[in-house]
Amino acid sequence: xxxxxxxxxxxxxxxxxxxxxxxxxxxxxxxxxxxxxxxxxxxxxxxxxxxxxxxxxxxxxxxxxxxxxxxxxxxxxxxxxxxxxxxxxxxxxxxxxxxxxxxxxxxxxxxxxxxxxxxxxxxxxxxxxxxxxxxxxxxxxxxxxxxxxxxxxxxxxxxxxxxxxxxxxxxxxxxxxxxxxxxxxxxxxxxxxxxxxxxxxxxxxxxxxxxxxxxxxxxxxxxxxxxxxxxxxxxxxxxxxxxxxxxxxxxxxxxxxxxxxxxxxxxxxxxxxxxxxxxxxxxxxxxxxxxxxxxxxxxxxxxxxxxxxxxxxxxxxxxxxxxxxxxxxxxxxxxxxxxxxxxxxxxxxxxxxxxxxxxxxxxxxxxxxxxxxxxxxxx
Length: 379
Description:
This protein is α+β, with helices and mostly antiparallel strands.
């Protein structure tokens, strides 16, 4: 009233206290009245632990990091969004986040409000501005609750950006979000517009459709990014072949003509550009989750470029083939990586624990001493 300053706080860009006059960092908390318990960007300070309660998450101003990750990656084109512990995109000089995690909730409210308003208008129940406002409000509340609860369930189920968690996480988020939002919308529309309350069957149907929709969308995103539709996990497991010494293409006991033909077929199977050429019947084997058969492109190129090549190998069916073998290890297990090529296409690739370079395809037999033997049928 008399222009006397009752209290004064000063923070650096990351929320640490500093002297209001000199701007030097201060480890001594200023003497503040009991009513002033909010500080940096208007958030509640928990002085006993030197933390700031930012509603959605707790923030440590000394580290400049949240104590828990953000549930969402808001912008997949920005690398800063992938540091889910950061505050305000690591740029507090430009941005603030005054309300914690709210973007997805706001989006859910807007979408839910618009959908409910559209439905009520189609049903002919909007006769005034008040009706429109109430219809939008009912849908907004339901949408916000659905986004908040569904988002939490999605994250708890392993959901993440780029289809992380796959169909399962998307279904969990969709089911929980629908279970939380549909009763709110039903009650609100019943009280104001006189709609009948939804039945238990209708509730179950909504939850099922929410799970199906969420699962298909997130599973589709996972598949688009080369991950498992169901789980969102990579469909190929990384392996670690070790280049043998000497690291060069080695042919033994073959004419120059067979060497040249083998090089051509290897290049046809593993071209510099474009996909690896597999025999059609073998595709399901190499695109599954079995890490012994399913390799990434880099591993295939390393083995085909640096392994020992046997151009005149004969398969168990008596047909000629090109065999490439290379000693290495996968997840700490020693063995041999091998590729078989026929007519410019890979017909077999496998890591055999305990395998050896011997010029014939190896087959791993669990419990067998040495772990290898020649396969009886051609596969």
